[in-house]
Design goal:
YfjT-like, mainly alpha
Length: 60
């Protein structure tokens, strides 16, 4: 992967970028063709984002 994010500013930037990526994926979904696998992937993305937030929060 990439280099570890160590300072608060870069951690917040990381979270913002991941959230924007999530929103782009949601915007790109077609309601007519979205299936359970797509929803599971969205949930996984949110779980990953929450995990990173909790990890960074300990540093703050």
């Amino acid at each position: 992967m990439g280099k570890a994010t160590e300072n608060k500013e870069s951690q917040v930037d990381y979270l913002k970028n991941r959230l924007n990526m999530f929103l782009e994926v949601v915007d790109s979904l077609d309601p007519e063709s979205t299936d359970l696998d797509d929803i599971d992937r969205l949930i996984e993305m949110l779980d990953d984002l929450e995990g990173k937030y909790n990890q960074f929060k300990k540093d703050w």
